[in-house]
Amino acid sequence: MSAVEKRSVTIRGHRTSYSLEKPFYDDLVAIAATRKLTLAALVAEIDETRPRDTNLSSALRLHVLEWAKRATSA
Description:
InterPro entries: RHH_dom, RHH_sf. One of its GO terms (molecular function) is transferase activity. Keywords: Transferase. It comes from Mesorhizobium australicum (strain HAMBI 3006 / LMG 24608 / WSM2073). The protein is built from 3 helices and 2 strands. It has one domain. The protein has helices at 22-34, 39-49, 56-73, and strands at residues 4-11, 14-21. By secondary structure, the chain is α+β, with helices and mostly antiparallel strands. The chain has a two-stranded antiparallel sheet. 57% of the residues lie in helices and 22% in strands.
């Protein structure tokens, strides 16, 4: 299994961090590219829509999972 890496991002002027395994990070980068967004913009979008009881790292993983499910069912 891939090691978890901590990364930092600025969202709406606030510096925060998240931890993801490399495969999740790589898919997140690919999703951002597909949507023609910067990675920071995609992370900010996910952060805005996540339930407040879900941490950012989990919300990012769930977003990647949902994206993959939609791609396979299309």
